[in-house]
């Protein structure tokens, strides 16, 4: 078996669907006169940047994924092929090329931290001062929204807040220009 004429630093690149990012593929050729043709089926949300021309073996290929550009996923796997250009010319068909390397591209769903989600959910369901769960049944535990900043506290904790011309938020000191009884109830 002949040694490979095209060597790449990786055969798999992974991008997160919600994050702009750039990855590099280092390409090495084992024959100095070898020219490499690069083909890919990447949608328009990807840019492929060759440090050299398309038919000359690049040393580094940069692939940038920009999820803000709308795209449709192709039916086949996303891939970049590095092909021995002269092998391609002699056969005229990609199917008969023996000296090529394929790098596959995966788009991954964003990672979520379960602890962060649980923290956000519990924060929305409890008063941030007394840490008691909001309740529609107990007037003291009904959630009240400080409309100036958006923080939500229970009625009892809001009643203990200072403020001559409204209610001062204990977290950011913004003053909501309502008295406690006038604060909107986030349940209603």
From TrEMBL:
Record has Aminoacyl-tRNA synthetase as a keyword: no
Keyword Cell inner membrane part of the UniProt annotation: no
Coiled coil: none
GO terms for MF: zinc ion binding
Keyword annotations of the record: Metal-binding, Zinc, Zinc-finger
InterPro entries: E3_ubiquitin-ligase_RING (IPR052667), Znf-RING_euk (IPR027370), Znf_RING (IPR001841), Znf_RING/FYVE/PHD (IPR013083)
One Pfam family in the UniProt entry: zf-RING_UBOX
SUPFAM superfamilies linked to this entry: RING/U-box
Limits of the RING-type domain: 127-173
Protein name: RING-type domain-containing protein
Native organism: Caenorhabditis remanei
Organism taxonomic ancestry: Eukaryota, Metazoa, Ecdysozoa, Nematoda, Chromadorea
């Amino acid at each position: 078996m002949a040694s490979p004429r095209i060597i790449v630093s990786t055969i798999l690149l992974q991008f997160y669907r919600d994050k702009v990012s750039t990855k590099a593929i280092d390409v090495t050729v084992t024959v100095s006169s070898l020219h490499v043709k690069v083909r890919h089926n990447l949608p328009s949300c990807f840019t492929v940047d060759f440090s050299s021309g398309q038919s000359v073996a690049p040393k580094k290929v940069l692939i940038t994924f920009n999820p803000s550009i709308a795209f449709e996923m192709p039916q086949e796997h996303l891939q970049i092929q590095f092909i021995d250009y002269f092998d391609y010319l002699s056969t005229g068909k990609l199917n008969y090329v023996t000296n090529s390397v394929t790098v596959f591209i995966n788009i991954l769903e964003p990672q979520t931290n379960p602890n962060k989600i649980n923290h956000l959910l519990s924060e929305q369901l409890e008063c941030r001062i007394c840490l008691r769960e909001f309740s529609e049944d107990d007037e003291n535990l009904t959630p009240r929204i400080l409309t100036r900043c958006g923080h939500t506290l229970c009625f009892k904790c809001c009643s203990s807040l200072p403020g001559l011309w409204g209610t001062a938020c204990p977290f950011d000191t913004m003053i909501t220009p309502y008295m406690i009884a006038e604060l909107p109830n986030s349940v209603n």
